[in-house]
Amino acid sequence: MNKMKKMVSLALTAAMTAGLMTGMGAMTASADSERTKITALLKGTESSEQFLTFDYLLKNFCEEKGLDYEIELVNDQQDYFTKLQMYINSDTLPDIFGCPNGALSAACKDVDALVDVGAELERNGYADKLNGALRDFLTDADDGNLYLFPQALYCEFFMYRKDIFEDAGITEAPTTWKEFEEDCQKIADMGEIPVIVGGSDAWQLMRYLSFSPWRVTGPEFIQGYQAGTDSFSENESAKYAVNLLSDLGTKGYFEPGFASVDFTSASNLFFGGTGAIFYTGSGQFSMAEEMYDNGQLGFFPVPDTEGMDNMSTNVPVHAGFAEAFNKATYDDTMQEFFDYMCENYSDVCYNQVQIFSPFSDETIPEGLPQLFYDVQPMFENAETAWTSWDDKLDSDVLTKIVDEQQKLAMTVKLYDGIRYGLPMLISKGSYMGELMQTNDFVYVTNVDEFDIEAFKSWYQSLNKEYYPYSSEYLQIQKDDERFESRLLAFVKE
Q: How far is the CA of 190 from the CAs of 167, 193, 237, in angstroms?
């Protein structure tokens, strides 16, 4: 019986830093020496899908080969990114490591640390079996090669509570964002929470910011944004998304305190019976299974963006937190494991972990939750994958967007204007200014350039009916002195 260690790392420590030079990569024998162990670095916990998949595969393979294996787990995403970068910098990468397709995979490629997974799949006959959307998701943007192996096939969609929809008089799931917002208002009028969102996790709000540009342009907008050739202020689908996120948040459609709710807590809220709509996906089938089988839940794909041509497939499909193989330690044993992994991956996905296999030629076995069979037609012909902005953007840009998207969705100081019938003032040249400068209820200016008369003229031209408190709007219009003093005080803040 082989010896197996599970190292669970929940935070970075000084000890980890000190031991980097003798890290996981160093514990694995080089390609031309006798191997005794396979090492892996994965994101998650012992209950996460990535761990369950590779723990099962490594355990069975290593028992057969008389090897040990060691899995290091880091749960927090930022801690994981930091640790992986440190392993990259110190040339101590393990044999297998979780790696998103973005800045970190590029860093690995820069030091020639990645096995060409696409070439390996061609060699062992599994290349044509790989789902087309996942290949698209993981293909390297610079050279068109495939360096990452998909964790699984994940699709995302909205789930909804059928009883709340019925009570609100909603007979069909929304197919456009206009219908989505109209349904949210009907639900809010009943005193129910329309939408549950984990606002403290960057990717949750970022999904709403990316829905429209992705549905209209695929990856083109975010690629152009990264390259500096496109922007939120110039791209119509991106402007649409900015307004959508702002509306959903400032109109009170998200749960109270959503900005401090993480995805796990949001999931527990929704599947615990709170709220009408939740953006989720196939990774949470286990939580949805019982309610779905009882007829309590339904699902619908990402709605269309009105007035624009949308992509033919509207289901976000992605590969999860993909795996990479260390080129420096990829010996005959690791190649054997790679082949073993491909041969057994679908079986592990469906029968051990209950997630969709990345190999599309595999038939879904009987006996799985009904959601597997009902959701699968949504993506079976997908060839274009979801572009995860949180993976693709560099850290500085990502930090800016994360900060601004919360402001967009929250009714904070800047957005008090919406509640009280006042317009929003935003500083020219700021990131928020870029996001919002084309919105009809936003006035973008610098304090030193502020023209009170020009502003009042613009303000008087606004549609009173847009604002929820039109009486306040009219009152302020009649009281120029009060209006002017409040306005100037706000600008100076």
A: 8, 9, 31
Residue pair 65/333 in contact (Cβ under 8 Å)? The answer is yes
How much is the CA Rg of the chain, to the nearest whole Å?
Answer: 25
Q: In the CATH scheme, what is the code of domain 4-150+320-363?
A: 3.40.190.10
Q: Domain ranges in the chain?
A: 4-150+320-363, 154-317, 411-492
State the average pLDDT over residues 301-312: 89
Decide if domain 154-317 falls under CATH 3.40.190.10. yes
% of the chain with per-residue pLDDT over 90: 50
Q: Report the pLDDT value the prediction gives residue 352, as an integer from 0 to 100.
A: 92
SS3 156: strand
Same fold, 4-150+320-363 and 154-317: yes
In angstroms, how far is CA 126 from the centroid of its own chain?
28
Tell me: pLDDT of 381 over 80: no
Sign, Cα dihedral of 12, 16, 17, 21: negative
In tens, the pLDDT along 349-370 reads 999 999 999 998 667 899 999 9
CB atoms within 10 A of CB 290: 12
CA angle 384, 386, 391 (to 5 degrees): 135
- Give dist(CA 468, CA 197) in Å, integer: 23
- In 185-215, which positions are buried (b, 16+ CB within 10 angstroms) versus exposed (e)? ebbbeeebbbbbbbbbbbebbbbbbbbbbbb
By CB atoms closer than 10 A (0-12, 13-18, 19+), residue 256 is exposed
What is the rounded CA–CA span in Å between residue 424 and residue 479?
19
Give me the DSSP letters along 335-395.
Answer: HHHHHHHHHHHHHIIIIII--B-SBTTSPPPTTS-HHHHHHHHHHTT--S----HHHHS-H
- The confidence band for 442, taking pLDDT boundaries of 50, 70 and 90, is low
Nearest to 158 by CA among 133, 180, 186, 131: 180
Which of helix, strand or coil describes residue 285? Answer: helix
Q: pTM (2 decimals)? A: 0.72
Given a cut of 60, whether residue 424 has pLDDT beyond it is: no
Residue 460, judged by CB atoms within 10 A of its CB (0-12, 13-18, 19+), counts as exposed
The three-state secondary structure class of 330 is: coil
Assigned token pair, 148: 């990452």
Determine the Cα angle at 302 with ends 301 and 304, to 5°.
Answer: 115
d(CA 51, CA 41): 10
Convert the pLDDT of each residue in 3-37 to its tens digit.
444 444 333 333 333 344 334 443 444 444 589 99
d(CA 413, CA 407): 9
The encoded tokens of residue 119 equal 């070439």
Strands 37-43 and 195-196: unpaired
CB 295 within 8 A of CB 161: no
